[in-house]
Amino acid sequence: MSRALALRLEPYFYTAPSLLLIAAIMLVPLVTGLSYAFHDLILLDPLSGDFVGLDHFREMLNDDGFWTALRNTVVWTAVSVALQFGFGLILALLLDRPFPGRGLVQALVFLPWAVPGFLSGLTWAWLFNPVIGPLPHWLHGLGLLATPENILSDPHLALWGPIAANVWWGIPFFAITLLAALQSIPKDIYEAAAMDGAGPLLRFRRVTLPLLAPTIAITVMLRTVWVANFAELIVVMTKGGPADATQILSSYIFTLAFQRLDFGYASAVAAVLLLLLLAYAAAVMVLRHVMTERA
Amino acid sequence: MATITLSNVSKDYGGGPVLRGIDLEIREGEFVALMGPSGCGKSTLLRLIAGLEEPGGGQIRIDGRLVNDVAPKDRDLAMVFQSYALYPHMTVRENMSFALKQRRLPQAEITRAVEGAAAKLGLTALLERKPKALSGGQRQRVAMGRAIVRNPKAFLFDEPLSNLDARLREQMRYEIRKLHRELGATSVYVTHDQVEAMTMADRIVALNDGAIQQVGSPQDLYDNPANLFVAGFLGSPPMNFLDATLAQDGALVVEGQTLARVPPPAGLASDAAVTLGLRPERLALTTPTNSVPTRVDMVEPTGTGRVVHLALGAQRLKLFTMDTRPLAPGETVGLSVPPGAPLLFDPGSGTRVA
């Protein structure tokens, strides 16, 4: 082997082990999963397994369950992330200034994050149960509910149950990351702004927000992808019901694959979800690039 | 332009007083340096004037108006921070316009003010850059520019040059001084660097342990320090301090040798122990026969002259000379103390006695 060729190949030898590993643990399952989307694959049907081309995707167009789940995914993700972000930012701002007992409060605030999603789903399901939980009675007392009934069994309201649990559970993530970003802003920049005649509100708008913007962009993007895929709370609290009214795409995929055992169709829906999320992430990246270019 | 008056100002963070009984009048158009070692309270004092801290006691007045409870933004003072504290997400132009925009000045006026200040500071070509694309010296200029566009009542400087290298520092010293002469604005300048205080200030306020040690012109503090702290802080190489006894007839005796004679002071006990302060550059080398013999310990050339370390018995002192005669360690030379050079301090309290 010539020396020049050896030198050309050298880097590939070094990177080969990790590339092979990545291919084995990431690409192989991904490609396998995607290939199911083009096959008729029903676990209990031994005759299935044929290549069906785009049949699953055509089926999806006429599947009400899919469209409901897609709509729910948008509502579920947008509302959950917006509220998690809003409350997380408020908490981070409150925790950024010193007060007696801050250490303890910080620990308490971050507690929901440590609770397994499954467990918090169960707890919230109980909280919404009028027999043992206080929430329906409080909502009734506030005039938000006509009768103290379980909203989880009302097809029009049921999605708000898992959303409430999700907001409670996800606030700490934003609080932690935004607090870290807040604390990395040098104090004297605020002091300079104060000397320059900016009051607290203006300092927040002209100093805090712009300096938090990169963190906000990246955390909101991460959380959006995460929450869109997060089926646990819905599966635990409503099982997608009543009558599939609270299915989001990821819980719908779970139901299709593990209850109807239709792996082929489930994989096709999953492929669509993957595409949607990739498109979303790409859009955010482009937006961020445009914004930093202009700024 | 403003006068700043502090009366009996104190500050306590809970771990003992940081500032005690500060009385100070900063006159209109004056350049005052707050000088002292780190932890002496000079930055805290500046932050109290700025309104970034609240005084524990006493009164702060700007142009006679009590400002203890006035927010920083309403005091109309500009501050240059040690870290520059530029807004990282804004261009130089936006940094410099920020304060003017808060006041809702017309855009044309803002542009004129910013461009005028930029021209004065040599920032014109950098106006559209962000701070991270600037060198340390350029950032420092932007911080200055942000202060001067506002045309404030007074400028506050918090060790503005300490992050620059020695050469740039010297240049900026000159430029700040020149700007002050042009603008004539009241300036309060915090520094731990005696050279900055000496070269820039109309008056120096020497601070130590949260209290004012002495206030006066740089030359006055240099020639007539009120105590050991001020005497030792100003001057490089620093003043020599020797343990001496002062005889009734005015003879200053160090290590058994009469080093100098001073007019017999009143009110001192016979053979009183004193701390004798001698500026290195006021001492002279002679021959050992007609003055006090001392031994050369080390010679440090500085370019302009030499710093000669001398041993006088068990005590050491330094002498600065521009004399070029050869000197070797171990050699015995004569030390001559001209009249007027000795400063006497009380060894216990450190206050000047003569």
UniProtKB/TrEMBL annotation, chain A:
Signal peptide: none
Keyword annotations from UniProtKB, A to Z: Cell membrane, Membrane, Transmembrane, Transmembrane helix, Transport
Protein name: Carbohydrate ABC transporter membrane protein 1 (CUT1 family)
PROSITE patterns xrefs: ABC_TM1
Single GO BP term: transmembrane transport
Gene3D superfamilies assigned: MetI-like
Species the sequence originates in: Nitrospirillum amazonense
GO cellular component: plasma membrane
Record's subcellular location: Cell membrane
Chain segments annotated as transmembrane: 12-38, 74-95, 107-128, 167-186, 207-228, 263-287
Domain of life, source organism: Bacteria
Keyword Heme: no
InterPro entries (alphabetical): MetI-like (IPR000515), MetI-like_sf (IPR035906)
Major site of localization recorded for this protein: membrane
Membrane topology field: Multi-pass membrane protein
Family: Belongs to the binding-protein-dependent transport system permease family.
ABC transmembrane type-1 domain ranges (all copies): 70-286
Automatic annotation (TrEMBL), chain B:
A Pfam family assignment: OB_MalK
Sequence intervals crossing the membrane: none
GO MF terms, alphabetically ordered: ABC-type transporter activity; ATP binding; ATP hydrolysis activity
Keyword list, A-Z: ATP-binding, Nucleotide-binding, Transport
Every ABC transporter domain range: 4-234
Coiled-coil zones: none
Top-level division of the source organism's lineage: Bacteria
InterPro entries: AAA+_ATPase, ABC_transporter-like_ATP-bd, ABC_transporter-like_CS, ABC_transpr_MalK-like, ABC_transpr_MalK/UgpC-like, Mo/tungstate-bd_C_term_dom, NA-bd_OB-fold, OB_MalK-like
A single BP term in Gene Ontology: carbohydrate transport
GO cellular component: ATP-binding cassette (ABC) transporter complex, substrate-binding subunit-containing
Xref: SMART domains: AAA (SM00382)
NCBIfam families, A to Z: PRK11650.1 (NF008653)
Recorded family membership: Belongs to the ABC transporter superfamily.
Protein name: Carbohydrate ABC transporter ATP-binding protein (CUT1 family)
Lineage summary: Bacteria, Pseudomonadati, Pseudomonadota, Alphaproteobacteria, Rhodospirillales
